[in-house]
Amino acid sequence: MFRDRLAADAARIQDGFDRVLGALPDSDIARAMAHACDGGKRLRGFLVLESARLHGVEDRALNAAIAIEALHAYSLVHDDLPCMDDDDMRRGRPTVHVTWDEAVAVLAGDALQALAFELVTAPESGPAEIRATLASSLAQAAGARGMVLGQALDMAAETAAAPLTLEQITRLQAGKTGALFDWAACAGARLAGADIAPLRGYARALGLAFQIADDILDVEGDAARAGKRLQKDADAGKATFVSLLGLEGARARAAELVAEAEAALSPYGTDALCLREAARFVIARDS
Amino acid sequence: MFRDRLAADAARIQDGFDRVLGALPDSDIARAMAHACDGGKRLRGFLVLESARLHGVEDRALNAAIAIEALHAYSLVHDDLPCMDDDDMRRGRPTVHVTWDEAVAVLAGDALQALAFELVTAPESGPAEIRATLASSLAQAAGARGMVLGQALDMAAETAAAPLTLEQITRLQAGKTGALFDWAACAGARLAGADIAPLRGYARALGLAFQIADDILDVEGDAARAGKRLQKDADAGKATFVSLLGLEGARARAAELVAEAEAALSPYGTDALCLREAARFVIARDS
């Protein structure tokens, strides 16, 4: 069930991107934005749409799903820059700064961030109170208390004298990948004006499990299948969940977190089966 | 009157930045954000506060004033990067990538954009309808139809086969500097839920006059007083309003635009004296 919905949601999100980005004035920036937003698993967008289905507000959720994927794409474009992670491949294709140049990559990322806020505040997302709440929470998730803080801690780790501790890596992850997962999973409740607490508990465990699975994939994965360079952290001598917990320890911790994520959904009963399946997917994926 | 209010508003905006940025987790990014937001004329923030005074909603306007200055600061930090304009000095001090490094500059700019949206959607800015409208219009002004489009046209001009025409430069300017001036001047009407048309007319003429004055300053100004490198456009062989209209022609056009800007304010009568004075200031400034 989960894989079918993920595929259907990914197709709807891609159609949305085609429409939204196709309406921009033609320029290298618009083309680079489309390049950056093409492909990927759309897991964050799926979380928006599935949490919205859970609350009966799927009809107003598409913009928020496109928005979180735009924000995620912007973070990848900037993260891939030579002055950051310096990556040439992403989602199986050359990165934006390789396809165009660094200036286009900086600007396309900047414009994608603005686009995310334009989308969540558009009338389609519902009453003004909800649109303002979506934008406010998205800004907090994206900024120097959320995703950018995580990125900064990650950059600082590269030059730190000692490898990070488990507590430090967990804090880094909570910003770098956790903040957007949190926003995505809570979006359905926010779109409905409902309590975000159960989805927040789910998202916290899911985001951490996702990062641990990423660290495992970085060690064990196949670069061609992942569509990006692997073994980066080991090459950089950076601590990861795998280096700190060992491969088996990391697998066990990820499985525990998936159980926690599933448990957090208990208020939703069987309505949340698809989200529970999504949690099991994040630690079983190969890309 | 204008200069006193500009100075008082600049001080309030700086206090606001100190409070908002002081509340962030301590990091190079937070310090770089503060560095980037320190100083400057605060003309965009003044336009927010003065247009709000005009509509009797100054009490809810401070966040929007800080937000537009944060967005402006982010655009300068990214614009100064080696892959963009490659500038070492800004507001009389070393730029962010010189003081820290390029990664910090990319991330601090990214976080400042998010901060701008966090500020305009915070409860202090008024009812939800107004906060959603502020965020939506700000996103449009900042993105690939507004400021980023202008930046991209500006980058493309550097490698274009022929110098830009007056029409092309005007379009570039409308994005690069005009979009934020437009948002800033209209913010007071938006905060009050009033008609933005007169302020929009004012802002369009003011923004263009500002850019022409910048081009004149680039040729005639004193780098120490301006706090940044000058004669960049001439060195790069780029067309400017001065190269297209001549120095006297550019001065005459700027004066015409100031008269247009003042005329657009006629619905406000004598209440708009300070905004009229601001329009005269933008073409008389020396930095």
TrEMBL record, chains A, B:
Q: Which molecular-function annotations from GO does this UniProt entry contain?
A: transferase activity
Q: Which InterPro entries match?
A: Isoprenoid_synthase_dom_sf, Polyprenyl_synt, Polyprenyl_synt_CS
Q: Which keywords fit this entry according to its UniProt record? A: Isoprene biosynthesis, Magnesium, Metal-binding, Transferase
EC code? 2.5.1.-
Q: Which Pfam families match?
A: polyprenyl_synt
Q: Which prosthetic group or cofactor does it need?
A: Mg(2+)
Q: What class of enzyme is it?
A: transferase
Origin, by domain of life? Bacteria
Family the entry assigns: Belongs to the FPP/GGPP synthase family.
Provide the protein name.
Answer: Polyprenyl synthetase family protein
